[in-house]
Design a protein that fits this description.
143 residues; mainly beta; OB fold (Dihydrolipoamide Acetyltransferase, E2P); 2 domains; five-stranded mixed barrel; three-stranded antiparallel β-sheet; 1 helix; 6% helix; 38% strand; globular; NA-bd_OB-fold; Thioester_dehydratase-like; ChsH2_C
Length: 143
């Protein structure tokens, strides 16, 4: 299922702050960007005001490929948000990106046959607009 159903309510929207706003804006504009420290050059996700590695405040957002591998996942059967009711069951995964060992992004992962993904599966990013203000990262198993 490639987009949210028109009959489903929109998912709750995150409260973007000055730290996370560039992440959400880039998704709306069609790219995935993650914070990178100007001091130690490590990427980090989720956005934070401080580098989790060297404690620097000098962080910038940089584009990443959106290609990756499923590191771990969970398949949701009992849906608690009406926005996802007609998608169940669906899988949410931590996808490790090749830009840096241990760099992971969270998103729904879809397979061609609606099966659960497998750990280690190659995936590619697909950005899904769910409202005028919100685009979410999802991943599709690469064929």
């Amino acid at each position: 299922m490639s987009d949210m159903s028109a009959a489903s309510p929109a998912p709750p929207e995150p409260s973007a702050d000055r730290v996370s706003a560039p992440y959400w804006e880039a998704l709306r504009n069609g790219s995935l960007v993650l914070q990178r420290c100007s001091q130690c050059h490590r990427f980090q996700h989720f956005p934070s005001a401080i580098c989790g590695t060297c404690l620097s405040f000098d962080l910038r957002f940089e584009p990443v490929s959106g290609q990756g591998r499923v590191d771990t996942f969970v398949t949701i059967h009992h849906v608690t948000s009406p926005a996802y009711a007609d998608r169940a069951p669906y899988s949410v995964a931590w996808v490790e990106l090749p830009e840096q060992a241990g760099l992971r992004v969270l998103g729904i992962v879809e397979t061609e046959d609606a099966a659960t993904p497998r750990i280690g599966a190659d995936v590619r990013l697909r950005l899904v607009p769910v409202s005028p203000r919100l685009t979410l990262p999802e991943f599709v198993v690469a064929s």
